[in-house]
Amino acid sequence: MGRGKYKSKPTGHRNFSTPEEMLAGTSTRPRTFKKQEVEYEEEQESAEESGEESGEESDGNNEKRKGTQGIIEIENPNLVKPKTLKARDIDITKTTELSRREREELEKQRAHERYMRLQEQGKTEQARKDLERLSLIRQQRADAAKKREEEKAAKEQKKTEARK
Prior knowledge:
By secondary structure, the protein is an all-alpha fold. About 55% of the residues lie in helices and about 0% in strands. It has 4 helices and no strands. It has helices at about 20-25, 30-55, 100-120, 125-164.
């Protein structure tokens, strides 16, 4: 345990290999990564040689990949590969499929239009109730108008009688 105000730093005891030692393979550090790297390079060279002989086996896999993407083959069904199409390759006659939300929105609009058409024709339950209410209100208004006319006629008759 150190004395004093300051703590000793752990970096003082580290040993680093020089690039010359690494190339010569005489460094004291374990060489597992170096061995794996050499094996990988040998595999790549043998794959390139066999690729040249086979011809067009790997036409689609010529793109460079970053990091471990070149080593690890991904089997992800959700991975969407970008599809770049040129203008001349686009098929104009092909119809695009609508998404679920778009389909539901169209169905909702069509159902609403159909319901409004039936509503105008008076074939829905709500339209029948509305028409009944409307006829009842018209009847009440007609009765009220008739009553006002009678009261007005009665007032005028009283006025004419009072003048005589």
